[in-house]
Amino acid sequence: QMVLSVFLGAVLLSCCLIAAIEWDTYQHNHAEVEHFAKQIAQSVGRSADGYTQRAKILSELVLLNPQDISWFDRTAAALRDDSEVLSLQLYREGNPAAVYPPGAPLMEDSGLQEYLRPDSADAANASEAMLYGPIRLKNGSLSIAAVQPVYTYDRVKGFQRWGAAVVLLRVPTAQMQANFNRMEANGYAFSLQSLNTDDEEVILHSVQPVGKEPIREVIPVPNGRWILEMQPVQGWFARSR
Fold first, then answer.
1. Which of 176, 192, 198, 203 is the most exposed place for a label (fewest CB within 10 A)?
2. What is the pLDDT of residues 195-218, one digit of tens each?
3. What crossing angle do the helices spanning 174-185 and 2-64 adopt, rounded to 10°?
4. Which long-range contacts (CB under 8 A, 24 or more apart) does 30-34 make?
């Protein structure tokens, strides 16, 4: 009986040690993934702000003389100093008024085009820049749109919607792809989603699907938010990846 008690005690101790090691591994993995997720979320957020700033510059130039946009091509060429920018566009009364580079693909019908209509209820309540997408372009590719509504002011009529300045971006950007490729190579599953609508729209995801208990990081973007989910492919209790 003494031997049995000693044996059972040893088994119980072993189980406790194993549980402690697994819990330590879980906490380590969780902290590591949370750290990576926050870093990537901050990087994506900074990039989003930078692109909407370009749309704001275009809108401010429109306001200097709403009837003359002959400056657009020169300014757009200077602002398109980033390989991630597909094109810069001005929309007036819901239709493209200027596009750089010439012949760049336009957007297919989407929620964003509805937003660009001058009589849109959403547009009437929005004056801040927004990041919208992913959206499909007429050449079949996907894009993210940085949009700045443009309003003019009339002493009699008050604020009148002129249109919008739009910067179309690659999906995913090279920086975003590099970050996520590194994550995937290191054994992480991930998914980046946009919440422009009631549905989550996937922007980028790993080959291996994210599990049921991922780290979930909210990324504030202008006038919206994205969601980054991450989890070790081998699970939270794997000691090596």
1. 198
2. 665 556 788 888 888 888 888 888
3. 170
4. 30/215, 30/236, 33/188, 33/215, 33/230, 33/231, 33/232, 34/215, 34/217
